[in-house]
Design brief:
The protein is an alpha/beta fold. The chain has three domains: 234 residues, Serine Threonine Protein Phosphatase 5, Tetratricopeptide repeat; 160 residues, 3-Layer(aba) Sandwich (Rossmann fold); 172 residues, Rossmann fold, CATH 3.40.50. The protein contains 24 helices and 15 strands. The strands form three sheets. A seven-stranded parallel β-sheet has the order 3-2-1-4-5-8-9, with helices on one face. A six-stranded parallel β-sheet has the order 12-11-10-13-14-15, sandwiched between helices. Strands 6-7 form a two-stranded antiparallel sheet. Strand 11, helix 18 and strand 12 form a beta-alpha-beta unit. Helix 8 runs antiparallel to helix 9 and helix 17 packs parallel to helix 22. The termini are far apart.
Length: 614
């Protein structure tokens, strides 16, 4: 029988697997005919079996190293294999596949780009940088510019990141690049044309032209709760999830609560959730943790791992593997503590691996709809965060916990005496401070801060050091408006204990808007430092207000920007009134439930009971 002829007929009829069998028989009869191997490789590639195809192309390439078709066939298969591993989060295998392809031809811009993506995903940014640069030198491409900008950003070269985002956006008006460019401009406080970019982002969402990361819009002043909900829903729709069939698990003897987060590590989440996990009633609940972040050499990571609860590390799990694990652990309530943030696995909620899914603490807003259904069943808030009547702006059913929705550890830090001169200030300086990330500093709020400095001549503004570009831009901006750059100082990154300790020299903490201080608001109150804030309509703009209300300090919530400015100047000129606030806050530390995780946990468990009995 002529196996080659038979294979040709079967191939023409689309029966590729049968054709492969005939070719393999022909190859057994003539093992030195490497062109049969090439044809087998081609057919395996047609059936998307790239691993098998690559094996045949490899053997052929050894004998015909100059054959362009064989070389291209092998590179094509290795690229496909690498992309498949990348999608499955098997990043080391993906990187190996791309590197093998580059060993055959290192001048392929597309392979260099894919290899760079794999290195980037493994946080090897220096390697990714070189690969993106080489790819870009061969072929100018908007995506490559964009990803190169992402890499520079991770390496702390924000000036270069800004340049490449702009070049990417000039080549292609991609919504993803637009958001990254806008987000970076906010991060470095480059406000010259920021309002235009923010308007473009809103227009993209309203017209459904592009999917915008919901986290990036929380700090944009032109996004109301309704538009934030729409943003989250559009974002969620881009994810394609595998088919998943939930097991019919028997009812648990005790409710099993699973917490899913990328931040069981050195992160502000530690100051919020750690004592809650300790305080849970283990006699009535079983607690399990699912960690989607990377292994970390930090005390906080080790403490989370050492808790007497199950700790599952799931960073390398596929969606299907993670959903199956959660299902097999028979989780009654899965609480997502990350939302749409880095290394988040929030979309697992759409697969419904647990009986109930809760959005809490990690994302300051709704997680939106997925295929017309709420991605999460519930969101935990409080009466201040989501006032009555505003529930319509949330896809989830709103559950309101007593007091403030934000928990805290019982003791943040012990203090040792410090003076203003220890931080380079004069003893008679009045220190305004705001220790939020630079992304939270809006132009409108900074303008208010400059008015405050102008109205309180003996004052200084102390900000958290974010990046040198931000500092340079803020100094230049303030100088142009008559405020000397020397009146604005930046607090360097230090240990958490030292950071908490320096709060003692702050006279008044000035909150940001529209993205309030969250954990840093609790930090300030722990140090008996008064906080001045304003509240808007969004979740993120009401957190500091919620914290102050639960602390009995509602008088520090200002109704307008003018009220905020005038009140700050007033306190700078009336130290006796400020002293009364310090005393009140210090007393409230022991009478308020804000720093009582045991009380908070009881309230949280009541919420869980209401879910399970509903």
């Amino acid at each position: 029988m002529d196996h080659l002829k038979k294979a040709k007929e079967l191939e023409s009829q689309g029966h590729y697997n049968e054709a492969i069998q005939e070719l393999q028989k022909a190859f057994q009869l003539n093992p030195k005919n490497y062109f049969i191997q090439v044809e087998i490789g081609n057919l395996y590639a047609l059936t998307n079996n790239y691993e098998e195809a690559a094996g045949y192309f490899r053997r052929s390439h050894r004998y015909f190293s100059d054959n362009v078709d064989i070389k291209n066939g092998l590179i094509f298969c290795l690229n496909a294999i690498g992309n498949q591993y990348q999608n499955e989060k098997k990043l080391d295998l993906a990187e190996a596949a791309f590197e093998e392809a580059l060993s055959i031809d290192d001048m392929r811009a597309d392979i260099l780009y894919n290899a760079a993506n794999a290195s980037f995903a493994r946080t090897n940014f220096s390697k990714a940088l070189l690969l993106y640069q080489k790819s870009l030198a061969i072929e100018k491409n908007a995506d490559t510019h964009n990803n190169l900008a992402n890499t520079y950003r991770n390496l702390g070269r924000l000036d270069k990141a800004h340049q490449h985002y702009q070049e990417a956006f000039a080549l292609e008006k991609n919504p993803y690049t637009l958001v990254e460019l806008t987000h970076l401009k906010q991060n470095i406080c480059a406000w010259d044309d920021l309002a235009m970019y923010q308007s473009m982002v809103a227009e993209y969402v309203e017209s459904q032209k592009g999917k915008i990361s919901p986290f990036t819009v929380l700090s944009m002043p032109n996004f109301n709760p309704s538009l934030q909900l729409h943003t989250a829903s559009l974002w969620a729709q881009q994810f394609e999830l595998p088919a998943f069939s939930k097991q019919l698990n028997a009812k648990n003897a005790k409710p099993v609560i699973g917490y899913l987060s990328a931040d069981f590590r050195k992160h502000p989440l530690y100051s919020l959730i750690y004592d809650v996990l300790i305080a849970h009633d283990n006699g009535n609940f079983i607690i399990k943790l699912f960690y989607s972040g990377n292994e970390e050499d930090s005390d906080e990571y080790r403490k989370f791992k050492a808790l007497p609860v199950a700790f599952h590390e799931v960073v390398n799990h596929t969606d299907l593997e993670l959903a199956s694990l959660i299902d097999s652990e028979n989780i009654d309530i899965l609480v997502d503590l990350s939302g749409f943030t880095k290394n988040s696995r929030s979309m697992i909620a759409a697969m419904r691996p647990a009986r109930h899914h809760v959005n809490w603490l990690g994302f300051a807003g709704s997680m939106g709809f997925y295929n017309s259904k709420p991605l999460f069943d519930y969101i935990i808030a409080d009466n201040y965060i989501i006032p009555n009547g505003d529930e319509k702006n949330y896809a989830e059913k709103v559950l309101k916990i007593e007091g403030c929705y934000q928990p805290n550890v019982a003791c943040r830090s012990e203090f040792h005496p410090v003076k203003k001169k220890d931080y380079g200030f004069a003893d008679d300086d009045f220190i305004f401070a705001s220790f939020g990330q630079s992304i939270k500093i809006s132009q409108q709020r900074f303008d208010s801060w400059l008015k405050i400095l102008n109205g309180a001549p003996n004052s200084k503004l102390w900000l958290l050091e974010s990046n040198s570009d931000c500092a340079d831009n803020l100094w230049e901006y303030s100088e142009k408006r008559g405020i000397a750059a020397g009146r604005i100082r930046f607090a360097p990154k230090v240990s958490f204990e030292d950071h908490m300790n320096r709060h003692q020299v702050i006279d008044l903490f000035l909150d940001t808007f529209p993205y309030n201080a969250h954990t840093s608001a609790s930090d300030a109150l722990w140090a008996s430092c008064p906080i001045l804030t304003t509240s808007g309509s969004t979740f993120a703009s009401r957190v500091a207000g919620s914290i102050l209300m639960s602390f009995g300090c509602g008088e520090l919530i200002c109704k307008t920007e003018e009220d905020y400015t005038n009140k700050a100047i007033y306190y700078a000129h009336h130290p006796e009134e400020l002293k009364k606030l310090n005393i009140k806050i210090n007393e409230r530390k022991t009478s308020s439930s804000l720093f009582e995780p045991k009380i908070f946990t009881k309230r949280l468990e009541n919420i869980y009971h209401s879910i399970l009995s509903g």
